[in-house]
Amino acid sequence: MGAYILRRLLLVIPTLLGIMIVNFTLVQFVPGGPIEQIIAQIEGQGDVFAGFAGGGDAGAGAEPAGGSFDDKYVGARGLPPEFIAELEKEFGFDKPPLERFLGMMGNYLTLDFGESYFRSISVIDLVLEKMPVSISLGLWSTLIAYLVSIPLGIRKAIKDGSSFDTWTSGAIIVAYAIPGFLFAILLLVLFAGGSYWQIFPLRGLTSDNWESLSLLGKVADYFWHIALPIIALTISAFATLTLLTKNSFLDEIKKQYVMTARAKGLSERKVLYGHVFRNAMLIVIAGFPAVFIGVFFGGSIIIETIFSLDGLGRLGFEAAVARDYPVIFGTLFIFGLMGLVVGIISDLMYVLVDPRIDFEKREG
């Protein structure tokens, strides 16, 4: 197992490098950048794409000799070339792309992720500042999904084909079909003062007076604020996990060792939870790290925006819109590395749940 883990760890390096190369290359072909963003704001366009749409009419003033300045920054005709050159030097765009990429990766090896172009704060501090919101959403939604889906999936497997199995399957499919953002808006309208009841707060992770509350009051206030976002984020997660649990149990129940256990006179409860559960839960439990990372990174952007929560999802979206490259590439490197490591942890979870699994023999 040690050799397998070592190989997986060594594979992280080229995989992560490939991720960074592909994304860095793609960014070079995307119109608009931090300099264009600044130019658009100075010219009063409000959006960098207004400069591209406006073509030769954007801005005012004399054109620099040669026209190369105008060709590169369409909306900057009223700005002196010296100013643009200073901006390029400040952001490092006076260097060729390859040199910029190698310098960036060299800094990442020393855990230097740079500073945000527009926020005057280091990328690491920015990530640490936003992380509590995303951890709260990812952790609680994943735990709730597991706590509900596993017992429900087991019950559906035991009652396979019954009316309980039928109507719960229908309810699960309906919940899965509802878009998360639409359900979040519905919760706001119903329970956050939209048109009906003002039961839950509209935005934020804590109240303004959170620091003055007692320990019990802080805990209650925290859960009061995250209740609606967690429900909205979790509603569609039940379907896959519940059906996975059910199908896994059904597969195990049909195996020979279960029939043998029943023939020996073991009670149905002991057969299910003493023999079937461990084998059936292998894929479900071992996949917990990957499920958490999936919710942690990908499932909270819209939810954070709707509930005005300042988390990593919203940070990534705002960085992409503003072309804040240090934040974009810094978070991509950090989360890409975390995702690859979590993949290794998932494999270790399989071995912990079922020691019979040997990845080294499978690779051979």
UniProtKB/TrEMBL annotation:
The chain crosses the membrane at residues 9-30, 135-154, 166-192, 222-245, 280-307, 327-353. InterPro entries: MetI-like, MetI-like_sf. Residues 131-350 form the ABC transmembrane type-1 domain. It is found in: Cell inner membrane; Cell membrane. GO terms for biological process: microcin transport; transmembrane transport. Pfam families: BPD_transp_1 (PF00528). Its main location: membrane. Keywords: Cell inner membrane, Cell membrane, Membrane, Transmembrane, Transmembrane helix, Transport. GO terms for cellular component: plasma membrane. It comes from the Bacteria. It is a multi-pass membrane protein. PANTHER family: INNER MEMBRANE ABC TRANSPORTER (PTHR30465), INNER MEMBRANE ABC TRANSPORTER PERMEASE PROTEIN YEJB (PTHR30465:SF66). Belongs to the binding-protein-dependent transport system permease family. This is Microcin C transport system permease protein. The lineage of its organism: Bacteria, Pseudomonadati, Pseudomonadota, Alphaproteobacteria, Rhodobacterales.
